[in-house]
Amino acid sequence: MEWTGARYADGPAVEVETWIDALPQRVWELVSDVHLLARFSEELQEVAWLDGAVEPALGARFTGRNRNDALGEWTTTSHVVEFEPHRAFGWAVGDAEHPTASWRFTLEADGCGTRLRQWARMGPARSGLSLAIDRMPDKEQKIVFVRLREFERGMTANLTGIKRLAEATG
C-alpha cells in the first residue's frame, strides 16, 4: 500500500484480491462463515451471532471481539448490509446507517475459479481510531495510513487462508 495522505473524514478505504482455484459456491461457504475470519486474524479474536441468527442474512447482527496492541481490546456489533449468495457479503460496524467501518467480500466467477476481493472503509462515524487522532491531530494522516496498512495486512491473511482452504477441498 502506498501513502495516501487521507484523513479519517475522507472515508479512506483499502481492497485486496486474489484468484482462487475453486468455484464461487465453495468460496462462498468460507466467506460467509464469519467465525472463520477469527481463525486468520491477529486482531479479530471471536465472533458470535446475535438475536438467534446462526448464519448471515440481510439485517442479521453479530459481535466481534478484537484486540490490537496499540488500540487495546474492544467489542463491536455489526449488521449485515449486503447479502447476495455466491456474489457479495458486507457488514457495517456499529450503526448500519452511519458505521464506524464497513467491510465487504465480493466473489466473481473467473475462468474455472473465483476472483475474491475484500474491501474495507473507515467511518464515517467516529471510532476508537478517532480518539488517537484527537490526541495527536497533527499525525492524523499517518495514523490513518498505519491503520489502513493493518487492514490490508489482515485482509491479505483472510484471503490467503480462504484460498488455502478452498483449494484444499476443491
Descriptive notes:
It is a single chain. The chain has 170 residues and is α+β, with helices and mostly antiparallel strands. The chain is built from 4 helices and 7 strands, in the order E-H-H-E-E-E-E-E-E-H-H. Strand 4 and strand 5 form a beta hairpin. Helix 1 (24-31) crosses helix 4 and helix 3 packs antiparallel against helix 4 (140-169). The chain is globular, with a radius of gyration of 16 Å. 29% of the residues are buried. The model has no long low-confidence stretch (mean pLDDT 94).
Number of strands: 7
Rg over CA atoms, rounded to whole Å, is 16 Å
Strand content: 35-45%
The biggest beta sheet, please?
7 strands, antiparallel
Apparent shape: globular
Classification by helices and strands:
alpha+beta
Rounded average pLDDT: 94
**Could you state the order of secondary-structure elements as H and E?**
EHHEEEEEEHH
Percent range of helical residues: 25-40%
Poorly predicted runs are: none
With strands numbered from the N-terminus, the spatial order across the biggest sheet is 1-7-6-5-4-3-2
Helix count from the secondary structure assignment: 4
> Termini separation (Å)?
31 Å
